[in-house]
Structures are given as structure tokens and as C-alpha cells.
């Protein structure tokens, strides 16, 4: 391992579009349950990957998944269909950021697309020793981007409240 000090992270604000990501793959039989639909765990795995890519593009740091909020399965995706995952950064905090991931199915023969899942993931930026590091700010320019970031702050407040309650319950049990 090198004794050199790593460069300070780039703190230049970056827009959400700069790190937007789209992943596409075909749903194969080994991805599916006996009914011929993609497994929920496989979808969750792909959501985590798509979210991490957008987060890495924004921060250019090491990251760990810290939370998943609002995961919803709205429709199944059949074997042979395409699964399309679109992710983008919605808000940044001090050492973490939130990424929205939307999942679509696309019928290969008709091109019909529908939203099948969505989730919000939180990633924490860390250094090689696992210490938290600051993340670059998100450039929020439009009223819609401000609204989305405000919603992310509300989710964060609720998530931290629930975490603190759980920690107090666990401490009381010991």
C-alpha cells in the first residue's frame, strides 16, 4: 500500500443528468421463478448496481449501500422481456447521497414498456479505511429538482428517526 495521501475529493457541484445511468438486459430463465417472472431478489440486486453506478459517477469515491427506501414491485417482468433500470442522484447530504432507481419492462416483440418497480437508495461515501468522506454537492437548478431533493430530505429525516428508535430498543434489551 502506498504512503501517499489520496487527493481531496472534487467538491465541484454536479447536476443529476451528469451521473444518470441506464442499464438494459434480457430476462433469462435462470433469473426467473417457476411462473416465468424475474425473481424479486434479482431485481433488487440490479437496482443496487444501477444506483451504485449513478452514485459513483457523481462522487468518484468508494461507496457502500446504506439504505433502501420505498421499494415497490408494481408489475412482474416475464422471461424474454427486457429489464431497463434508470437511475439518477436526487439529493446529496454531507457524506451520503440518495439515488432514485426506476425499473421498466419492455416486451421484446412489441416494444411496450411499463414501470415495474422503483426505489430510493442511500449510499455513504468512504475512504479505503472505511471512514466517511464528504460528497460533492448536487447542482439543483429547477423547481422540480428542488421538490425531489426536499422529498429526499424528508425521507432521510424519517429514516434516521426510525434508526434511532431501533437503536434505543436494542439498547434497552441488553
Describe it.
The chain has helices at residues 40-59, 143-173, and strands at residues 14-15, 21-26, 62-73, 82-92, 96-106, 113-126, 138-139. The protein has one domain: Hotdog Thioesterase (Thiol Ester Dehydrase, Chain A, Roll), CATH 3.10.129. The protein has 174 residues and is of the alpha+beta class. The N and C termini lie far apart (40 Å). Helices cover 29% and strands 33% of the residues.
Quick take:
With 174 residues, the protein is an alpha+beta fold.
Give the percentage of residues in beta strands.
25-35%
Return the CATH topology.
Thiol Ester Dehydrase, Chain A
CA-atom Rg in angstroms? 18 Å
> Ranges with pLDDT <50 over ≥5 residues?
none
Number of separate helices: 2
**Shape descriptor:** globular
As a percent range, the share of helical residues equals 25-40%
Structural class: alpha+beta
Span between termini? 40 Å
- Global mean pLDDT: 93
> Architecture in CATH?
Roll
Main sheet record = 5 strands, antiparallel
Per CATH, the superfamily is Hotdog Thioesterase
CATH class placement: Alpha Beta
Estimate nothing, just give the exact number of structural domains. 1
Per DSSP E runs of 2 or more residues, the count of β-strands stands at 7
- SSE sequence, one letter per element: EEHEEEEEH
Strand order across the biggest sheet? 2-4-5-6-3
Primary descriptors:
174 residues, alpha+beta, Thiol Ester Dehydrase, Chain A, five-stranded antiparallel beta sheet, two-stranded parallel sheet, 2 helices, 29% helix
Amino acid at each position: 500500500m502506498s504512503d501517499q495521501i489520496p487527493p481531496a475529493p472534487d467538491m465541484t457541484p454536479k447536476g443529476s443528468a451528469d451521473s444518470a445511468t441506464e442499464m438494459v438486459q434480457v430476462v433469462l430463465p435462470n433469473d426467473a421463478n417457476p411462473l416465468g417472472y424475474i425473481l424479486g431478489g434479482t431485481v433488487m440486486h440490479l437496482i443496487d448496481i444501477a444506483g451504485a453506478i449513478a452514485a459513483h459517477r457523481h462522487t468518484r469515491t468508494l461507496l457502500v449501500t446504506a439504505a433502501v427506501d420505498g421499494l415497490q414491485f408494481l408489475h412482474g417482468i416475464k422471461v424474454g422481456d427486457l429489464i431497463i433500470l434508470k437511475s439518477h442522484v436526487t439529493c446529496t447530504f454531507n457524506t451520503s447521497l440518495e439515488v432514485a432507481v426506476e425499473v421498466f419492462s419492455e416486451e421484446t416483440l412489441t416494444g411496450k414498456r411499463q414501470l415495474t418497480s422503483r426505489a430510493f437508495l442511500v449510499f455513504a461515501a468512504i475512504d479505503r479505511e472505511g471512514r466517511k468522506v464528504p460528497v460533492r454537492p448536487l447542482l439543483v437548478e429547477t423547481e422540480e429538482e428542488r421538490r425531489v431533493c426536499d422529498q429526499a430530505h424528508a425521507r432521510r429525516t424519517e429514516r434516521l428517526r426510525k434508526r434511532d428508535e431501533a437503536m434505543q430498543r436494542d439498547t434497552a434489551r441488553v
